[in-house]
Every structure is written in C-alpha cells, then in structure tokens.
Amino acid sequence: MSKKEIAFMKGNEALAEAALRAGMTGYYGYPITPQSEIMEYLTRQAPEYPNVTILQAESEVASVNMLYGAGGAGGRVMTSSSSPGYSLMQEGVSYIACAEIPSVFVNVQRGGPGLGTIQPSQGDYFQAVKGGGHGDYRVIVFAPNSVQEMVDHTILAFDLADKWRNPALILTDGAIGQMMEKIELPEHYKFRSTEDMRAEKPWATNGRKDGRKKNLLTSLNIKSEDMERKNHELQAKYAKICDEEVRYESYHLDDADIIISAYGLSSRICKKVVDIGREQGMKVGLLRPITLWPFPSKKIDELAKKENVKLFMSIEMSVGQMVEDVKLVVNGRKPVHHYGKTGGIIFTAEDVLNQIKAKI
Amino acid sequence: MKDGYELVYKRPATLLDARMHYCPGCFHSTMHKIIMEVVEEMGIEEDTIGVSPVGCSVFAYNYMDIDFQQAAHGRACAVATGIKRSLPDKFVFTYQGDGDLAAIGTAETIHSCNRGENFTIFFINNAIYGMTGGQMAPTTLEGQKTSTSPYGRDIKNVGHPLRMAEMVSQLPGVAYCERLVLNTPANVRKAKKSIKKAFEIQKQGLGMTFLEVVSNCPSGWKCSPVESLDFVGEDMLKYYPLGVKKDVTANSN
C-alpha cells in the first residue's frame, strides 16, 4: 500500500487521471471546449498505459459508437464532451442503453442552446436525466461539485456502469472542469487481463470460446412483444437502481423551513447562502442531489411532509429544469420556486439570498 | 449419408440452419455463406466478431454462428474500431450496405480506412435502399428508377453515384481493396478467395481490407432474379468495374 497521494489539479485533468486509475481500457473522444484537457491529459499519459486505447475520433458520433464496440467487447470505456457534442452522441447513448453496454460519459456543460457559449452552464439537465435520445431509457447521472468529486464520481461511474450494465454520466460544467483544487487520488485498480474481463463479463462479444454460445449485442427488437419485454426488463432494472443508488448531501436540513435544492457548481454557492442566511437568523437548508438520476425523491417527499417547511427553492444555472422534478415530488403541498442565471453568468450568494427573501 | 454417396457440397457449420429473411435471388445469402465458409476453413469461428449494419443485413447475426454486435445506421466502422482496438488478436468484420457505408456512414468509413484499422469491410453495393422499400442510394446509377427517383436518377439534382472502392483505395491506411461480384459460380469462387486473402492480411495487421461486392436487389429493382443478374452484368459492372484496386502484398508475392 502506498501512502496517500495528494495533488493540486484541474477538474478535467483530475477526472482523466481518475479514469486511468479506475482501470479504463479505452477512451474515444473529440475535442470541444471546455473539456479538451481530458483527452490532452490522457494522450500525454498514454506512454505509461500501453494497454489503454486512447483514440481521437473523427466526430462525437463516431466516438460514441466506438464506445459501443469497445464496451461491448468487454472493456471499461469512457468518452467526454461538452453540451453540443454530447447532443451529437444521443443516438448512440440510446443504442448503448438498450444493448446494455457499460460505458462512462462526461458532459462538461457549456451554455446553450445551439453553439451557445463556452462558459459554464447547467442547461443540459433535461437531456441528462430524461433520456436525451429516443425511447424509454435512463442514464445514471452524477453531479460533482468539486475537483475531488470529479475523481470520486469517475471511479463510481465506472463501477456502477459495470454493475448495472448501463451508461453512466458525469454531468459537470466548465467551471468545475477548469478550476484547480487540492485532491486525494485513489490507488490504481488491479490490471484486468483479457481472461479477467472474459470472466467478469460473460455477455461480451470477445469471441465465443470453450463451447459457449455466440454472444449478440443489439438494440433491435423488431417484434412488438420482444420490444415490450425488453422495456419491462429495463424498467425493472431502473427501479432497482432507484432503490439502491440514490446519493445526496443534506446541509442544515433538520430544522430548515426554507429548502434549497441545488447541484454541482450551484450547490457550492448555495452552501454559502445557507451559512449567511443562518447568520441572519433564517432557517435555511440545502438538499444537494449527488445523483441527478436516480433523483432523491424520497428525501424531498419527506421534507415536503414536514409542517415547518415553508417553501422549496431550486437554484440552477438554467431557466429552471431540476425545479420540475422537485415540483413533481412536492406535488403542490408547498410552494416551489426557481432562481437561475444562464449564458455562463454565475449568481452570487447575495443574489440567491435576495431571491429567497422576496419569496417569503 | 447414404452408403455409396459422397458428400460434395454442404452448408458450413458456422452458417446456422435458419430460414433466411432475404428475398429469393438476393446475393446476401451467397455472401453470408462464403464468409462463413472461409471462417470455418480458417478455423477462426471462436476468434471472429461480426458487426451488422442497419438495412436488410441487420439480421446477419441470425445466420452466422459467431459473436456479433449490431451497429447504428452508418456506424459499423466506428463500432468495429472499438472492438478491434480492444481485441487486436481477433478477426473483426463489418457487413454494410450502400446507404449505410456510402451515405450516412461515409465519415466513419473514410476515417477508419484512413487510420488503417485492421478489420475487414464487406460492402454490399446493390444501388438501392432495400429494407426501407427501394429508395435511391448513393450508388444508384444515373437514370435508374427507384421510389425516390421515379423518373430516374438525375445527376444534376442529386449528384453522381459514388465509387467507394476507387475512393478508399487512395487512402494509405488501406492494405487491400477489391471489387467483386457474385453473379456466376466462377465469380463466387473468386470472391471467396478474396475474402480469405482479406482475413489473412488482417491477421498480419497490414491495415484495412475493403471488399466491395456489386450486388442485386430483385425486389427493390422490381424485376425477377434472373433479370437482376442481367442488370448487374450489363449496367452495374460498367460503372463499377471489377478488380483489385489496391494490394500492398502484391509486390511481395
């Protein structure tokens, strides 16, 4: 066992280093601001990792399909992009979800719609948690709010993608991707040989061997009955993921009568909002979803039931997306408001506090 | 086998005894058979992974008894890149039609060829979108009638049919490129030799191996299987000339 490894790193680079330590076998990407450091870092480290494929593809459309092939062959695979590029991948994500190929995606969000701006944003929440591509499918979505969590969530994303045979997404933004913080890096995962991977993933298409029947990875279920059966299977898996994989952070929620919900970069600002509000005698608390899907619905329901809770306030760098999920759970029992900024403009704690005061 | 009879022709064991969905007279079944014959003869059925496209041959995996991945429309070369990069010692091939390879998937085709990926592309060029009901393809001939070129392909409006074998043979990453046809028993035997050669080059890791097969579509062309052979032999081969377009092993032989 080596001693703790402490580093001072940029979010994008820390994520890339974590992927290597998580035993990533293949990365397929395409440059786009503000996440290009991920592939730049990986290609710099490549000589140290001769068994890892790091390939710059001709497009995001190609890279997501390379992920399909390489993940289907039994590897631990990742791609990364930013908003417009992740949009291009959505067809592939849908195929991957249906064929149940473990794979890790990273969206370092920038402002949209369209080509938008390269400044940070949280405008891709709907795309991330509601599907993004066609059909009834779900992606496990992590929302890191620090460089340390870029590391931790990347490791977790690889493990949960494998555990559930499902795509997992790190939904972060240009600010977290670009900022530098002190982090602790985990040790490298044990190297997996081809035989290890064969044993871990008996469904993978790595050549039928030792009398096993052929493996097939497809998202085609042309008979209606087969397609519906597949959908029921997927939904049963998603229900289990909702039971087992919800992650959130509570900050001063016990006696809070004003509940802020915020994730990622917004949640860092909202922690300060809670601190300042409490200094001023306001009973304000923060619920920070760490997984955006599965969503911490039970916790929100519990809060909505409390008599002392006066209102919910969803703070996002968007015109209001996660607020819809908060409203779905609260279901009219308490007022639910939203405050946000877009285009890369980041609100201050004072802005948020003033908005809350205006609602009470 | 009855006494006194000698078995001279059989289905390869790697070609499953399944009822095919292909139309009568279609070359797909012949192509499936000779690929699987080569796989069986080379003894690589446990080491070969196929990638099927979107189009009539999407169901290729129902007939070939090897591991398979089914790709999104046009993305077979990207999927095969991911597989081959993960499993460089395995044999990997894509099986794609003209809409898949030469329209929606042109970028993936060109770039995987240009990178010199070590897999084999089987490109079935029948100048039409078969599965969706006979629409114009990037390889539809000038003047050829389809459901979306009802008065014949007008090159002033939609451009010229793409000669993919000639195009990709220009790329340094391509080791072997040949255009074949399956319209006679002699040509079928010739095609089988080329498939074997492609797999052998793949084994040596020399780069992309690309086999274009001029094919037919009696249903889409709205003619009988026999008439379709005439169209292949007389019209298709004029615009799509047969032959080896590139062979990096030629000088060493």
In short:
The complex is a heterodimer of chains A (360) and B (253). By secondary structure, chain A is α/β, with parallel strands linked by helices. Chain A has helices spanning 11-21, 37-45, 60-72, 83-88, 90-99, 125-129, 147-164, 174-178, 194-200, 224-244, 264-279, 297-305, 322-330, 349-359, and strands spanning 5-10, 26-29, 53-56, 77-81, 103-109, 140-142, 167-173, 180-185, 216-217, 248-251, 258-261, 284-289, 291-293, 311-316, 336-340.
Describe the structure.
The complex is a heterodimer of chains A (360) and B (253). Chain A has 14 helices and 15 strands. Chain A is of the alpha/beta class and 360 residues long. Chain A has two domains: 5-195, Thiamin diphosphate (ThDP)-binding fold, Pyr/PP domains (Rossmann fold), CATH 3.40.50; 249-359, Rossmann fold (3-Layer(aba) Sandwich), CATH 3.40.50.920. In chain A, strands 3-2-4-5-7-6-13 form a seven-stranded mixed β-sheet, sandwiched between helices. A five-stranded mixed β-sheet of chain A has the order 10-12-11-14-15, sandwiched between helices. By secondary structure, chain B is an alpha/beta fold. Chain B has one domain: Rossmann fold (3-Layer(aba) Sandwich). Chain B contains nine helices and nine strands. Chain B has helices at 28-42, 76-86, 98-104, 106-114, 155-158, 164-169, 185-204, 218-221, 225-239, and strands at 48-52, 67-70, 91-97, 120-125, 128-129, 135-136, 174-181, 208-214, 243-247. In chain B, strands 2-1-3-4-8-7-9 form a seven-stranded mixed β-sheet, with helices on both faces. A two-stranded antiparallel sheet of chain B has the order 5-6. In chain B, helix 1 (28-42) crosses helix 7 (185-204). The mean pLDDT of chain B is 96. Classes of the chains: A alpha/beta (360), B alpha/beta (253). The A-B interface holds A 25-26, 28, 53, 55, 57-59, 61-63, 65-75, 77, 91-92, 95, 99, 194, 205-209, 214-220 and B 45-49, 51, 58, 61, 65-72, 75, 78-87, 90, 107-108, 111. Strand 9 of chain A pairs parallel with strand 2 (67-70) of chain B.
